[in-house]
Amino acid sequence: MRVLNRPLAFILAAALATAAVLLIIEVIGVAAHHSPLVVPWTTWYRWAGRTRWDQLVIQIWSGILIAIGAVILVLELRPARVTRLSLRSSHDATSAAMTRGALARTLRSAATGIDGISAAAVTVGRRRARVTATSAARGDTAAEALREPVTHTLQERLDALGLRHPPTLSVRVNTRSS
């Protein structure tokens, strides 16, 4: 579920519940011949009775509401962010997956297990895994010498996981700051 769906659903539910309570109060008020009680609906009713559909105020509000609806529709129809990467399986009935965070931790662990690497930052996207390793040694030549072993080790780890669609590996080795 998307992050905004729950708060928006709560706001919509609260607004509908409030509108329902107000409607019940007004219906009771009309039945008791004491109308309007809370909402000045008689004024709105008279305004709606003398306002035509082709007037500017109606067209402006219609345009605003259509634009808001179109934005919400586009946001909801966008494909959801893939948070799980599916693993290969020999059986169709088996479905296994790995989260992006788990893949990032696995790659970080593999990178920091290499001699000469003191830290690693990993970001896993839908198509690419970016690894920025920090060399324990100072100097660009030491960092450049570690790039190939780090890339090879991480690619082996990525291949060993058996991801159905493995992300492309992007490795950068930086030197530690002085």
Question: What is the name of the CATH topology of the largest domain?
Answer: Alpha-Beta Plaits
Distance between the termini: 44 Å
Q: How large, in whole angstroms, is the Cα Rg?
A: 30 Å
Q: Assign the CATH class of the largest domain.
A: Alpha Beta
What's the β-strand tally? 5
- Percent strand: 15-25%
Instruction: Determine the CATH superfamily of the largest domain.
Output: Cation efflux protein, cytoplasmic domain
The dominant shape is elongated
Number of separate helices: 5
Contiguous low-pLDDT stretches (5 residues minimum) are none
**CATH-level-2 architecture of the largest domain:** 2-Layer Sandwich
Describe this structure in words.
This protein is elongated. The protein has 2 domains: 5-77, no CATH class; 85-175, 2-Layer Sandwich (Alpha-Beta Plaits), CATH 3.30.70.1350. The model has no long low-confidence stretch (mean pLDDT 89). It has helices at residues 5-31, 41-50, 56-77, 100-112, 140-161, and strands spanning 84-86, 97-99, 117-124, 128-135, 168-175. The protein is α+β, with helices and mostly antiparallel strands and 178 residues long. The protein has 5 helices and 5 strands. It has a 3-stranded mixed sheet with strand order 3-4-5. Helix 4 (100-112) crosses helix 5 (140-161).
